[in-house]
Amino acid sequence: LLPFEFAALGIMPEHRTAEDVLAWMSVLLREFDPEALNQGQLENAALIQKLTSVYGPAGYAMFEDLRWTNDPEALTYIPESTAAVESVQTLTNDALKRKANPPAGHKDLLKAAQRLSAQKADVIEKLKQINAFVKMGSYAWAVSGDKTSSSNPVLYSGPQMGFSVPSIVLEGSIAGGGLTISGMSVPGVPGIVIGRTPHHAWSMQVGHAHTVDYYIEDPSNVYLHRMETISVAGSADVTLPVFRSPHGPVINPIPYDPAGPVIAWKYSHWGYEFNNIKAYLDIARAESMDEFGEAIEGVAVSQHFCYTDNDGNIAYWMSGRDPLRPAGEWRLPQGAVPGAPVLEWDPAVLIARSTDRNTPQGYYCGWNNKSSAEYPASFNNPSYFFGPFHRAHVIDDYLSAHNDLTYEDIRDLALFIATTDSFGSGGNPWQFVADDFRSAVETAGLMDEYSGIFDLLDAWDGHFVAGGESQWRTGPDRSDAWIFMDAWIREVLELTFADELTLPGETAPYRTYDAEHKNRLFNVLLHGLAGTASGIVNLYPWYSPYSSYEEIIVTALDNVLVLYPLDETPWGTGARGTIDYRHDFLGLIHQAPLSSRSTYAHCVEFGPFGPERIESMFPLGESGTILVGPGGAPLFDINFFSMTPVFDPFMPRDFPVFEQ
User: Fold this and answer.
1) What is d(CA 269, CA 287) in angstroms, rounded to the nearest whole number?
2) Can you give 537-554 as a three-state secondary structure string?
């Protein structure tokens, strides 16, 4: 029964111990925490240094535009109340009052940030080479009985963790030890992490709690904490010194050099990692919405939870240990600005939990977007900056516009959103700029000349798969409208930002512009197009040296028409793409049509006595086992591909409900 992979490597695995389980849980917390392994504060310090060295005070205005903290127009899981909107607008909406002058100076962190960024990129590339890089995303929605045809609440959960071989997830049930539960788990985790019980069901999507801060340390505060020995296959052990400060482990320089700059990593989960095991048990054992909420308090990693139960409730929480921080500048490492106070926080004192119950709108939904109106953007994750556009709008738009939803409507919303595509692998950015782009062409007096473009875009259904709904599952072609829209918007971004964000000595693809997340730049563009009516008003005229954004839009249109002339359609034949399942040793073993899919999915309808209907799916099959066959050849388990007829065409199968 030794799996093929171990046999091929000549390794006999040892039995797992309790210590192994605890270590694995700690690793997973860091892997799935959106801030734990990111270095946004250091990268922000480097960005300020680069921009102000070239542009002076204008560089700091650029930084403010690129790293806003809280946009009141961003889509939230928790519907905004008038009071919450007014509170946020008081703090952030009047962007013209933001400081446009740089602080007195910054410590030189450019080389350190670049070195750490290169190290992280190298680690990620090596993880991808061995099929061990974990993709983070996820979508979910909980719909109340007020919006369903059955008057029962329905929950859908779709965690996105990529398509590794074997799969990163498994599905099963536990009946015993005081537990009655089924759902998804991750190998090595002692319990169900996304599941359903006779009382309730829940989702998990990666959240954006602020769990990490970087500190610039005085070498006098650094001490040797331990010597860490790492076993290396086929080679001698490697022993490394681990240095710490009162804030946490020293992550720069490595090897340690007091000449520095010495940078420490302060992590709010430190010492709380093992609480997650009890939290998962408490989540499974909860007999009320209050008990479920109490269990969430023990979940250290930041996750969005959508919830429903047999009392007809729907609810939302965001977990994560987000410390109560004093007011101040948290976009930069503490100690980065000479003379500024170094701010501290107590990991035991947390901000109030972001949560809501039984919203009058009748649903909670999201796709890793903003939790609530008062919650700021992530300071260390460069992709978690929330503005007017976010891919989650396709979920919110659908649920807000539909009532009397059937179980199938709620389930198949996953197919609807997975066949959209944008900077965040989902969403439809065109609807956010369509009026501005049309107006620019009209103002230039060119509508007659370019009417064919707008005929193409006006007839578009918003999906990247060509041919309409009948082709969403397996159609091979990309929509011509999607191809043109995507190219036009990206060319507008290039003309708007690349001139300022290509600094002396930089060339593509190593420009500051190339490192900026395009979803964030698109939102900066939306801020600019809205002008003073925007929730965040840009301080810098990004359209320069053009006379206006309108001129950029028309110029970009001319440029794109050179690449995609209307008389040469179709452009997207055979261009849909594929999801490739690759094994480390065996290479490509399976392909499916590309969509922005979840690695697992369950859809649960609740009646007063428990789940009345459960459907679920995950990729490839019920067993990820490959054994050693004749002559040492790999022998796939009979169930290795048994789920492909279910998962590939978005046709989940029934899962047993609980006995009532």
Assistant:
1) 27
2) CCCCCCCCCCCCHHHHHH
Could you tell me which residues come within 8 angstroms of residue 541 by beta carbon, excluding any fewer than 6 positions away? none
Q: What number of H helices and E strands is found in the chain?
A: 17, 23
- Mean local confidence (pLDDT), 419-425: 92
Question: Looking at this protein, which amino acid is placed at residue 123?
Answer: V
The phi, psi pair for 353, rounded to 5°, reads -60, 135
What local confidence, expressed as pLDDT, does residue 104 receive? 53
Which residues, at least 6 apart from 332, have a Cβ–Cβ distance to it below 8 Å?
41, 44, 45, 48, 106
How far, in Å, CA of 248 to CA of 212, rounded?
10
Determine if the pTM surpasses 0.90.
yes
SS3 653: strand
* HEC string for 212-268: EEEEEECHHHCEEEEEEEECCCCCCCEEEEEEEECCEEEEECCCCCCCCCEEEEEEC
Q: Quick one: how far is CA 130 from the chain centroid?
A: 22
Q: Are 370 and 404 in contact, with CB atoms under 8 Å apart?
A: no
351: part of which helix (H) or strand (E)?
none
- 201: tokens are 């069901």
- Spatial separation of the C-alpha atoms in residues 384 and 391, rounded to whole Å: 12
- Contact between residue 405 and residue 395 where contact means Cβ atoms under 8 Å apart: no
What are 231's two structure tokens?
């076993």
Residues 180 and 291: beta-carbon distance below 8 Å: no
Task: Give residue-wise pLDDT tens across range 65-114.
Answer: 999 999 999 999 999 864 343 343 333 334 444 554 455 566 788 888 88
Task: Provide the 8-state DSSP code for 343.
Answer: P
Burial class (CB in 10 A: 0-12, 13-18, 19+), 625: middle
